[in-house]
Structure formats: C-alpha cells, structure tokens
Design brief:
Number of strands: 10
Oligomer: single chain
Order of helices and strands: HEEEHHEEHEEHEEEH
Strand order of the largest sheet: 8-5-7-6-10
Largest sheet: 5 strands, antiparallel
Shape: globular
Distance between the termini: 52 Å
Helix content: 25-40%
Amino acid sequence: MGVTEAAQIPKQRGEQQLDIAVRYAEERHWDVFPGTWLEAADGAEHCSCGDLRCPAPGAHPTRRDWANQATGSAGVARRLWSKQPKSSILMPTGRTFDAIDVPESAGFLALARLERMDLPLGPVTCTPDRRMVFFVLPGAAHKIPDLIRALGWAPGSLDLIARGEGHFVAAPPTRIGGRGAVQWARRPTPANRWLPDADELISPLAYACGREAAAARARLA
C-alpha cells in the first residue's frame, strides 16, 4: 500500500477540503467524491442543494450517479475539488471498506471493550448526530445479519447499520449544517491501515447496542 509514518492523515484544522480529499486517496487508497457544501444566506448556513429542509445539509451527493464519480486517484480528486473547493468529502462504502454505524454511546462502550481485549481496530468516526462509524473490510454488510443472529439477537432489534455497496459515509472534517463536523474518534494511522473483519468487532458492538436497546426500553417502562 506504500503507507509510511507520514501517512497519518495529519491535523485537519485550517486545511483545505481539497488537500484532505487528496490525502485520503493518496495515503489510504480510499475512494472519495465531492458532495454538497454549505452556503451562508440570511445569517444562516444552508445546503447548496437549495432545499431549506435538507436532512443532511452540506453532506450528501450532488448527483444520482455519485458512485461513478468516486475516485481513488489523487490527481482526479484534486481536479474534482478544484471545481468547488467547499464540497464535502464523501466516501463510498463497499469498495475499500464497509462501515458499521452505531449510536455514539454504544460505540464508545464497544471501543473501550475492544481496546481492553486488544482486538484489531480500524479508523472510527464520530458524527454530529451522535453516531459512531467503524471502518471494516468490505463484505461486512452482507454477513452482519447472520453474525448478529448467531449471537442471539434479531438483526432488526439492534440499532446497528451495516453500510456496504450503494452507500457512503461523510469523512472528517465534513460539516453537517449547524450540527457540527464529522471527527475522528480513532484516526487513520499506519498501524490501522489493515482493516479488521466484521467478525472481529461484531460481538462487542452487538453487545453494546443490546445494552443501549435495553436501557431505552427501561426508560419507556
């Protein structure tokens, strides 16, 4: 992969979206594509799509064929963001990685358990809507329902979403309206360039989501 100690996706404060998008493609070999962006008007920020009720302002694709636009070429990424430097950074799942999306509280619980058990861990993001996204090897989305059943849960009973082919995630430091920016909970480093398999993470993640579901039921009782 050619990733060295320099390939740590360094601090993003003050950096341009273009440089960060190029770095994801160049240093991690992740596909990227530009999404919408935020525009200031009437003292507020609105999505460039023009929909004042946009559910993901500044963080969704600009075209229906976004999957064809995604690129792993640093040069192509540079050209794409040069056209609109404020574009959000979106990454398709199902190619170089899949993503496991869980509530933030469950994610932090699982993260602590994974680290105590010294289990392999890839990059992890926190989103402004209080979700955590774990990067895993491609193919996870297809097998996670069976893995969850094997652990004794019905897949629909847990707030755990597997994102594979046909989906995407927003990459740091993409901002989602006035809610805030996507951030790294566990930053990409040379140590985690090889992503874990979903099999290695699913037990702590399912357990944490199960606890979250049980706590929610208790609050409603």
